[in-house]
Amino acid sequence: MVDFSTRVEAVSISGIREVFEAAGADSINLGLGQPDFPTPEHARQAAIEAIEAGKSDAYTSNYGTESLREAIIDKHARDNDFELSPTNIIATAGGSEALHLAMEAHVDEGEEVIHPDPGFVSYDALTRLAGGKPVPVPLRDDLTMDPATVAEHVTEDTAAFVVNSPANPTGAVQSPEDMREFARVADEHDVLLISDEVYEHIIFEGEHRSPRHYAESDNVVVVNAASKAYSMTGWRLGWVVASEARIERMLRVHQYAQACASAPAQYAAEAALSGPQDSIDQMVAAFEERRDVVLDELTDMGLRVPTPEGAFYVMPEVPEGWIEEVLDRGVVVVPGEAFGSAGAGYVRLSYATGMDELREALDIMREATRAVN
């Protein structure tokens, strides 16, 4: 039998998927990383119209349609206060491909990539698949990442570091001051900053500022997607923003691995970005209400819960045996160590589910808490 590559053998199936597969059919799922709202109707309709008009039958440009890239340019001017041109953008198969392109184009064999711990599972895995070495860094007590800690971990072998705000799995939001410092670290140490901004619109306190707004060099690559803000996880449409030189290198990977993002999804995302934005406000208001209920209940159980300021996750610290008790009672949660060794002793809960199910799950968690105390 032909051996497998050392790169693929260095990664394994996500711990999140393992939990899902072990769950029963009647479980309450608080492990999902996707909004429980429909894609906006005008975005759906745009895809339907493109299909019926035959506009989605052929490949688009490797970069993505010009009209989508113009919509992305307008979005970043409106929301992030920076200017782009069409050659600063590649439309990708979700934010995951955008991350993959950034890693493949910038990380050489054995080079280091600094990332938050706990952090999104793809950062470690995509670093390894690119031949790099993951360097996880611990978080502050409020589960944000400290720019000074990142700077301390930069070495001559560092290729990049990843910032994710609002963050998966913690819900933490980096302050504008932090983002300015991250940009300074990238500029002064001449390393790449990969800014994962997929959850940028789902914020309850504070504000989102992209480090690209502060950067004085081209050392910031921004990853974003329609997935979370517009509840379009299944459409698989993201994008990556960078200087023309960096985009050209990432395009070399994209054209051979993907060719182009799905054409119907591109037309849907264009409509989502350019059309009414009120669906975001409605979704965020619902998430904030759920977050407050979850925080109150978990705190009342006696658990320590850093307050998440964004996304739709909460990451309480739990006693030994708690996760097993909750899973055995039919509530799907994700152990913190699935997101890195520093996540041990924590659990990620997603409140992207209806309030009735959420309250039922919290009642079960209260039972589990009594059982282990």
Description:
The protein has two domains: 6-39 and 278-372, Aspartate Aminotransferase, domain 1 (Alpha-Beta Complex); 41-274, Aspartate Aminotransferase, domain 2 (3-Layer(aba) Sandwich), CATH 3.40.640. The protein is 42% helix and 13% strand. The chain contains 13 helices and twelve strands. β3 (112-117), α6 (121-129) and β4 (133-138) form a beta-alpha-beta unit. α4 packs parallel to α10 (263-274), α11 (278-300) packs parallel to α13 (355-372) and α12 (322-328) crosses α13. It is globular, with a radius of gyration of 20 Å. The protein starts with 5 loop residues before the first helix and ends with a helix. The mean pLDDT is 96.
CATH superfamily of the largest domain: Type I PLP-dependent aspartate aminotransferase-like (Major domain)
Tell me the strand percentage band. Answer: 5-15%
Unreliable sequence segments:
none
Rg on CA atoms, Å:
20 Å
